[in-house]
Amino acid sequence: MSEPRDLVVVGAGPAGMAAAATALDGGLRVALVDSGAAPGGQFWRHPPLLAREAVPTADLHHGLSTYRALCATLSAHERTGRLTLLLNHHVWTTARDGDGFTVHAVDRGRAPEERAVVLRAPALLVATGAYDRQLPFPGWDLPGVLTAGGLQSLLKGGGVVAGRRVVLGGTGPFLLPVAAALAARGAKVVAVCEAAAPSAWLHHPAALLRNPAKWAEGARYAGTLARHRVPVRTRTAIVGAEGAGGRVAAVRTAALDADGRPLAGTERRIEADTVGVGWGFVPQLDLLLPLGCDLADAGDGTMAAAVDDGQRTTVPGLYTAGETCGVGGAALAVSEGRLAAVSVLTDLAAPGRPGTRRPAAERRAVARHRAFARAMAQAHPLPPAWPAWLTDDTPVCRCEEVTAGAVRSARADEAAADHRQVKQLTRAGMGWCQGRMCGPAVHCLVSARDQPYAPAERLIATPVTLGALADSVEPTSDPI
Ligand SMILES: Cc1cc2nc3c(=O)[nH]c(=O)nc-3n(C[C@H](O)[C@H](O)[C@H](O)COP(=O)(O)OP(=O)(O)OC[C@H]3O[C@@H](n4cnc5c(N)ncnc54)[C@H](O)[C@@H]3O)c2cc1C
């Protein structure tokens, strides 16, 4: 049997990489697991190693020096055998096991073959990030309508510019880097429709003043958009899409009133071959919920993992960092990852080198970034009246083809009060994506306005073959 690990980190994005590097520097033996082909997560998504020279993407990134330093630290520890880096490994479930955790993953490095991998450790750190929040609108299921994050992933992960004439819509600062990157790579971005008013930021001067780097970043994007003559329309939303020849051909946009209702007479039709939509992100809690950790209101209409000031969840030995604790960007994720690792080192009484521990500075950074994240959530809310854009035949759950009309009648006729009841009555959320796409929207359609969305608990985070399932019950080899 190989030597036991002290810590399993799931997710090799900014939070997980920083956590693993700090824990390794502190003397722990770590397994770092990610379903992707390379470390970096969403923010530092890169093409697979073999394709990097042919597909340069460095110009699309920020903070590459931090990424490279983290990669160098991880590689050094991999060479000494203290780090086990498991890429292309998707964790499908986790369980508490005596005084530690068992992590079940499938190795998809040789897909479609799947191999079960079981890891055990006294401490588990979940850094699984977030996914795009989507709100449906008539035509959102047409080919060519993507999430804003999806457009960015195609660009960063493969240098793919997904369209020639692109309209972006939704809310939040994330629309700006996507628009800037697409424009810089030759796409004609014909409109960015931001539902919020920029003046909403003026209510949060302290958060702005404490985060000058965010200003500078915003100014760089604004410069790129101005150079490429990309119009940014505020208090405006994409309220419909039209197809031709089997894919999207145009969008309908409208100016919004204070509640988010389209203003009469403001509707415009804009031709486009690609549409990217993003309404912020939803924390990816699949692995945390079944372990029983408490959630807290993230302030942006979603629930996130509840943590103390050292990133400890309410389950002893379970830590989490990055977007699982609420959406706030990569710099926050890195600081939270480091802080979580310092807590693991402390709780496991690891000897550690003192130089690796700067919890006070990291805590200050986390507080500063969290203040900015709170301001961002308040400045970019979901427009409360967005359901007014839907017709009764607009699909809400695309996997199971459940319409807005069916969800509304589940609420009106059968008194469904949350997305779980709607799922039982209509099958919304029962398909391939297990409610990740439609869950937040169904929640808004049936729940009270101020109630944040908490995803349903899923014991299995990704579809897994029966062969791999059988192997994990009785592992054919020793746990790694
Ligand atoms: C599609 C998308 C694109 C984005 N692009 C940008 C961008 O360009 N710029 C920007 O500022 N912000 C971007 N964001 C926001 C971004 O998520 C964060 O700011 C930052 O990456 C958060 O870091 P993190 O470590 O918390 O999570 P992530 O970077 O999301 O890392 C989480 C990691 O966990 C892995 N993972 C998740 N579940 C499992 C599992 N069950 N088993 C194994 N591995 C798992 C994922 O593969 C991923 O590598 C994007 C978000 C999304 C959803």
Arithmetic mean pLDDT: 93
Shape: globular
| Count of β-strands | 22
What fraction, in percent, of the residue positions are helical? Answer: 25-40%
For the biggest sheet, the summary is: 5 strands, parallel
Bound molecules: flavin-adenine dinucleotide
Description:
This protein is α/β, with parallel strands linked by helices and 480 residues long. Helix content is 30%, strand content 22%. It has 12 helices and 22 strands. The protein has helices at 14-25, 64-80, 148-158, 175-184, 205-209, 212-227, 330-347, 359-379, 404-412, 419-426, 439-446, 466-473; strands at 7-10, 30-33, 83-86, 89-97, 100-107, 115-121, 123-126, 130-132, 145-147, 165-171, 188-194, 232-234, 236-244, 247-255, 268-271, 274-279, 281-283, 295-297, 303-305, 318-320, 395-397, 402-403. The strands form 7 sheets. The protein has a 5-stranded parallel beta sheet. A 5-stranded parallel beta sheet has the order 9-16-10-11-12. The chain is globular. The mean pLDDT is 93. The structure holds flavin-adenine dinucleotide. Flavin-adenine dinucleotide binds next to α1, β4, β8, α3 and α7.
